[in-house]
Amino acid sequence: VTKHWKVREDCFTINDGDKNTIRQNFLECVVKSNDMIRKQLCVCAQTIAREDYPFNWPGIMDQILQTLSTDSAANSWLASLLVLHQIVKKYEYKKLEDRDGLNKAMVVVLPILFERLAQLH
Fold first, then answer.
1. Phi and psi dihedrals of 51, rounded to 5?
2. Residue-by-residue DSSP string for 7-25
3. 35-50 pLDDT, tens per residue?
4. I want to staple 102 with a disulfide (CB 3.0 to 4.6 A). Which of 8, 51, 91, 94 is the partner?
């Protein structure tokens, strides 16, 4: 994914159908993976987020929200937060006016995170 996700003319690129399948199942794979694989998937998440979020990967926020809202398993939370972290890193050094994709997501995600963390206390 890290080498062949971005479209380049001089080398092989993962086709759009395969990319869609990867994006649709990505969070579930992170949830079900062991720690070593999960770390590698986070590197992949960074590549996919950098290239595709928010326009070609809008469903990831819905998946993260659903997992944080409904699932109480620690693995699910960890996976959601790790993928969210990679998305946030995309906007780390962007100007405020270029953070619209992140701002819209955070309006929904942060209240859910607050609620879930308050339940832990």
1. -85, -35
2. --SSS----HHHHHHHHHH
3. 999 999 999 999 999 9
4. 91
